[in-house]
Amino acid sequence: MLSRSLFFTRAFQAEWNDLELPEPGPGEVLIRTRKTLISTGTELTAYTGDFPPGSVWAGAVQYPWQPGYSSVGKVVAVGPEVTACEPGQRVASWGPHATHAIQPLSQMQAISDGVTDDQALFWNLGKTVMNGVRLAKIALGEAVVLVGTGILGQLAAQYAALSGAMPLVAVDLSDRRLEMARDHGATHTLIGGRDELEAGIREITRGHMADVAFEITGNQAVIPSVVRLVRRLGRVVLLGSPRGKTELDFHDEVHTLGLQIIGAHVSTHPEMETPYNPWTPERNGQLFFDLVAAGRLRVDDLITHRYPWRDAPAAYEMLAADRSQAMGVVLEAWS
Question: 0.90 cut: is pTM over it?
Answer without folding.
Answer: yes
